[in-house]
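Progress narrative, Year 2. Work on monodehydroascorbate reductase (NADH) from Colocasia esculenta advanced from sequence curation to structure prediction during this period.
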Amino acid sequence: MRIDLRGQVAGIDLSAPRGKVKRRTYKYLSNGIRPLSPTIFFVLLLVPTVSSAWEFLPTSSDRSLPLPPPPGSSFGSSRLPSRAILERSMAEKRFKYVILGGGVAAGYAAREFAKLGVNPGELAIISKESVAPYERPALSKGYLFPQGAARLPGFHVCVGSGGERLLPEWYTEKGIELILSTEIVKADLASKALTSAAGETFKYDTLIIATGSTVIRLSDFGVQGADANGIFYLREIDDADKLVAAIQAKKGGKAVIVGGGYIGLELGAALSINDLDVTMVYPEPWCMPRLFTSGIAAFYEGYYANKGIKIIKGTVAVGFDSNANGDVTAVKLKDGRVLEADIVVVGVGGRPLTTLFKGQLEEEKGGIKTDGFFKTSAPDVYAVGDVATFPLKLYNELRRVEHVDHSRKSAEQAVKFASRVDANYNPIGGGHNPRGWPTPNDLSSPNGELGLLQTADKAAIKASEGVGSFEEYDYLPYFYSRAFDLSWQFYGDNVGDTVLFGDNDPSSAKPKFGTYWIKDGKVVGAFLESGTSDENKAIAKVARVQPPVESLDQLTQQGLAFASTF
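Result:
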């Protein structure tokens, strides 16, 4: 046996002519062998100087090679490795599993790994942020409250779904390494290595990409003055801290929100309750057009107007004025208007963080393409949350979903599958062999090499059967928001005809209304403002079941009662 310095092992082809051998390169994996094709041959070499058997997997073509050096030669001796090799090994960290990203998906993935019994030291989370994973939606809601504001450690994952709060100590107790304030600048999926901005190298056996999204900045489009002080974006807790400081410093001042989507609406409400004079600007004909119908949007625009928020539609910010200190003073609109501003918050969308993997993974619809188990096109690499374009089984199409609910559930799905796949392989040096992979004893069996190959064939079949029984991701799209005293939920798909029901008067003391989406004679989506827990469950069920509808007028009259019948 010969081990080269790249961490690969050269094995001997037993069928080669005497006096020469053919070399095959085998890749060593700390958690055992992994088949790369349906037909795989395993060769185990028992060498007297090796104390335990290793398992190998062919990964390259045969080439002629002289016989390996005999035991006792300089290469085969037990001399100490060179200083260069030691320094390289000290600069590297190796883990069985690495989660890249420190957001919601990372936290829920870590919890799932812990549930499934990951061993101490096997799992690491690498995050650019300086804190353990937390529930990101709090940043645009409770974190900005003027009184009783949410603060860490109060909203670490997994409290957002009613689960246990995973404090930093929890990761330590579970033997999970939190590698914080670390930005990965290079990912080499072929060599299973990640490189940080500081030059550290992290090796892994299985990678879960949970890098999430980044905000779209106006400076990316060359908007004049977009780098002025006092222009904020909200994605991470550091962004929220800066915004909180500005709110406190500019009490009673003027705030302009650029954008009328999720962030725009939630931050418009948050700044208003902090006694700022708020104006919202967006180019669309109504707010949140990717989800809201004009009828739904009319309610929220009216409600916000009643709270003193001014809304300017059909135009965009084309520049910013600032003073001698570089602080923003005004927002210039395309229609010629100029709005005074002490604070500007921009919420014009986000883009998935996939740059590290360009050219290494198949992409589609702006994200990393995965299957129903969140496997990517590269072996042992999974993508979850915002970055994943996955099969949406309910609608038989590929989609990328940016929402915390999907981040949580996709992370759990990927971990369950990755752990299950890993359990199909025999770990090195262990007696745990649930799938019957070849062992050293197979070589000494009566059938010798033939017995080994037969065992490998049976094991491959067993592994295929075990993985195949795992359920594919079957996600029901879900979105929600809370602002002022309002709270809405949406389930399903917002395509087709719509009906609006209930009280959607923005001046009502207790407004309550909803909308159904109907396609091909079936209800495919449902929205409800101010619903109870049971009512929200009812509209979720309708969106999942997709019941037929005979008349839109009848559906309008039935309203919420229609959902209660399923």
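The CA atoms of residues 436 and 458 lie 8 Å apart. The first strand starts at residue 2 and ends at 3.
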